[in-house]
Amino acid sequence: MNAPEPKGKFRVVGTRPVRPDGIDKVTGKAIYGPDFVTAGMIQGAILRSPHAHARIRSIDTSKAEALPGVKAVVTSADFPGQSAKIIAAGETSSSLQNIAATCMANGKVLYIGHAVAAVAATTKAIAEAALKLIVVDYEVLPHVIEVEEALAEGAPILHEGMITKGLDPAPDRPSNASMVFTLAGGDVDAALAASAVTVSGHYRTAPVHQGYIEPHACVASWNADGQGQLWISSQGHFDLRNQTASVLHMPSSDLRTYPLEIGGGFGGKTGIYLEPVAMLLSRKAGRPVRLTMSREDVFNASGPAPGIVADITIGASEDGTLTALKLEFWNQAGAFPGSTIHSGVMTALGAYRLPAYFARGWDVVSNFAGTKAYRAPGAPQVAFVVESCLDDIARKLGIDALDLRLKNAARPGDPGPTRVPHGAIGYVECLEAAKAHPHWSAPLGPNQGRGVAGAFWGNYGGQSTAAVALAADGSVQVTTGSPDIGGSRASMAIMAAETLGVPYESVRVTIADTGSIGYSMVTGGSRVTFATGKAVIGAAQKVIATLVERAASLFGVEPGQVEWRDGAAHCLDGERAGESLSISAIAGKAGQFSGPIVAELAVNPLDYLPAFAVHICDTEVDPETGNVSIIRYTTVQDVGTAIHPDYVEGQMQGGAVQGIGWALNEAYVFDGNGRMENPGFLDYRMPVASDLPMIDTVMVEVPNPAHPYGVKGVGEAPIVPPLAAVANAVARATGLPMRQLPLSPDRVWAAIQAAK
Amino acid sequence: MSKIAVSTTVNGDPAEFLCDAGESLLDALRGSLGLTGSKEGCGSGDCGACTVMLNGQMVCSCLVLAVEAEGKSIATIEGVAEGSVLHPVQRQFLEHGALQCGFCTPGFIVAAKALLEVNPDPDETEIRYWLAGNLCRCTGYDKIVRAVSAAAAELRQERSAA
Amino acid sequence: MKVILIEPFPGRYFGGRGEFEIDAPNLFALVRALDAIGPGFAEAAGEDAAIAVDGVMRADWSASLEGAQEVLIVPRIAGG
């Protein structure tokens, strides 16, 4: 919908222009990770573990090395030794040892698909043939997948000597629980005992995958002088460069990293898998090396989102005022510690006023790929538990599900989950908009049920760098280091055009490599439009200051007598009062001033605000088959200010549909050997167009006062409510509790049969 | 093992390449012919990112052997626009913000164009079922369906004006 | 000035203690003071902590703490 809709105070913000990278992406010209080719490039391939848990006794690569066409073979022996040093990995941090072990198994394989060796050869076929010549001697160990197995007495331990952190007193024996995180306030047991009603439930979800359509890929070139180049599609080429350089013990500036277009990430492309391996192969081979993952590799060996096991009790008074929440959950973290228990705990405590609370998350490792961030990491699973339990309270008390939430919703100034008070949040506005939406009062047919769920995601800000440069003709070059994963070039151009007062089309946006601009964090945490946007706006303001100074010289007045308005300098005083100078008239005279007009700005804003969302879902359940159809879906979200509404709506719709897939179909299914039985898109069933209705969107705008245009992050919040919205709808359609996801036909059918 | 020579037509132009017997048409397009607009999302015919037309039939090029292209006519995303004039499906994808990361977009555009050639006035359900072989993980399909519907209307108008 | 730490920091570095009364000119000095009580905290804080001063998240540790009443040190949360 391209018609400009200027609204009130903004000229460009809030319009829906075509994205600057659009034509390349609808004509097949855009170069994504697997598309990039460089001169002399050869092909790599990775040997992966067939065992879920095994000790590597030895690896014999001699036959592979002897195969004609093979240029390099790499194993963990080629990696430098790693310390336990913690470094930034995306928005969380992880130990270098675990980051390196994610790229190449060291001593032990921890999951099926774990990389054990790699080959580079003149063709992919030769590289794959060489893999078959590598002999790995494994001592197979017993494995664990589910949380209960991992924590059972006598369970095989993945990481020898790992003592659970966060318990007092500390356990004296190693286990597969890496960490416990607890937030508590008030006397939760006394408050529950005194509550008029309490509802409890035991919940379970399975690991799921982000499901980006582009598999991981990279090209690496590492020269003998130590300098290297990496071409990657990622959510943050600066952070991936830093991780790769740290693992390889090289200075970051020796590794120039170029961002390619990224085909989806959702958190899964914030860490390294192939990059150091490709680098080591390249240095041995003396040639650039490409490594790619197959779809099966992506499922087995990238970073899914954790499953969860949870117990919850919520108490309320007769009028529906919440009295206490008690939650304990266990994250199925995969092979490495560090899953999302902190944000899970925050999710449980941030949306409602709770006089007493206890929320504890356990990070439990087991033998499948180490989990990674997935869009609002850790939040959807916990929101499923809390929002389902709230629905039970509403039904028990006979209170409208939205009224119950409105009664208890967090308001600005209320303490947030870590006691930092909520700023200008818009949860109440969202709940009221949901209640007023015709969907909420529309009639339902037989076997249909309507569910609602609210939730929030904290968002993030953090470090970004941006540059704004004017050409002599007054056209504008914006440069950032934030990969464009869903239209952010357009939002950067809109904000720069709004600030400078120039047309959207005169601003062009480049995502620069690590050698061309300063650091920016990953595109994640719903931070780019907010934080990188602040850098762009601030740099544009510096450019305006220069334009005004120069215009003042040209007018022969003081800068204070010049006003920048509508893309031109207006002389307010003196002989030339009323005259104006266009941006091109000033920029074209750079040779008569101190040089071209360029401003760069680095920022680290933390005055971001969380995004709240409310989703309404209608389902129809086929009692004969247990199949659940989504027949109507509405998303309501506080978006702060929508810079480009098409892409804000797109985030809301896309997040909702990922959540619908999580609720209805998606799950890692393991066989008795720890092998994922469905590592392909046929059996790992993501939603397709015919599964879905239109996804209605209501953008509620409660601006963030700390951003010049009121931006709040929008990308992650939409995946938080749908799990519970769908489950609550199915529960209301069937009259049965739905506490285990996915709600696949067999599970729903079994529940219906059991209740008969 | 010696390579097999294949003579075919790609986007209306003669094209020749050498391939291994087991090589997929997708690999030949992306490799030998340098046409990387068709994407590999799965390699198993489940995601539709590699959708091309083979003698007028919509296929997943990852499931077609490169040697099968011998003597046939292939149309890929690179041939959808006429020169620099976008096809209405391409234009409406842009106008509707129907792509986010854009990786699945070439497959959707080839498939949607094929739909509108056989059904100039599809309803929402027909669009959704025709496109059910193409996965998009970013958009939730809403804007894609609207874009295809708008492109259909535009094409109908063009035809009635002609 | 009241300093409140949220898990995992009290358990990991301060024997479970989560509240201190410390005066410091800025957050660098405050974290150094805490590191003297719980060795290793400063490095962990640099990687993993988010800090709010009187309820507002603070990025710049060199900014003055004059007049501040309460400093809250919480774990940094991941995003996708």
Protein topology:
The complex is a heterotrimer of chains A (about 750), B (about 160) and C (about 80).
Chain A: H1 22-26, E1 42-48, E2 54-60, H2 62-66, E3 70-75, E4 86-89, E5 92-95, H3 96-103, E6 108-109, E7 115-121, H4 124-131, E8 135-140, H5 147-151, E9 177-185, H6 188-193, E10 197-205, E11 217-222, E12 228-232, H7 237-247, E13 255-259, H8 275-285, E14 289-292, H9 295-301, E15 307-316, E16 322-334, H10 341-349, E17 356-365, H11 379-397, H12 401-408, H13 427-436, H14 438-441, E18 448-457, E19 464-470, E20 476-480, H15 488-500, E21 507-511, H16 528-555, E22 562-565, E23 568-571, E24 580-582, H17 583-587, E25 598-603, E26 611-621, E27 628-638, H18 645-664, E28 695-700, H19 722-734, H20 745-755
Parallel strand pairs in A: 1-14, 12-13, 16-17, 20-21, 27-28
Antiparallel strand pairs in A: 1-7, 2-6, 2-8, 3-7, 4-5, 9-17, 10-15, 11-12, 11-14, 15-16, 18-26, 19-20, 19-25, 22-23, 23-24, 26-27
Helix pairs in contact in A: 10-11, 11-19, 12-13, 15-16, 18-19
Chain B: E1 4-10, E2 13-19, H1 25-30, E3 51-54, E4 57-60, E5 73-75, H2 88-95, H3 105-118, H4 124-130, H5 142-161
Parallel strand pairs in B: 1-5
Antiparallel strand pairs in B: 1-2, 3-4, 3-5
Helix pairs in contact in B: 2-5, 3-5
Chain C: E1 2-5, H1 9-13, E2 19-21, H2 27-37, H3 41-48, E3 49-53, E4 56-57, E5 70-75
